[in-house]
Structure prediction request, 153 residues.
Amino acid sequence: MKAIRQFVMFILVIVAIVAFYIGVQLINDSSGRTLGLMYDDLQGTPFSSYAAPGWLYLIFIGVGSIVTLILTVKHIKHYPAIVIIMGIILAIFIIAQIALINSINFLIVVLALFAFALIVLGNFMRRRLKHPHHAPVSQSANHKNKKHHLHKK
Prediction:
């Protein structure tokens, strides 16, 4: 389970870095040219520039990933559920982006795979925490019927 949690943390770091980079680029250049985006792609969307989507990426995906990462590192009680929620938020962003811009590129595919991985791995971690493989055994239960070598019959 430790390896899975570490892989989830790795995904969250990558997603946060990408989201902060995209968000800052879209905010600084609201035409989207620095990222190779076409301004015409915004036609028919609720956005007049790429600044608002940049802020959304920065806050929901960037900050959301960092918060999820911190909660996962600290083993907060329901961190697997939070990982699942982060995966769902990322998936919603990807689906909305594809629907609004009607375009798919390599980065979108990678982020979609990360969203899927967060949902699946978060679910796996949640189930493992709910039903651990080995139930904890108390120390007194182990030695209940055993006699120590110092005791005589």
Q: What stands out?
A: Residues 2-131 form one domain. The first helix runs from residue 2 to 28. The chain has a mean pLDDT of 88.
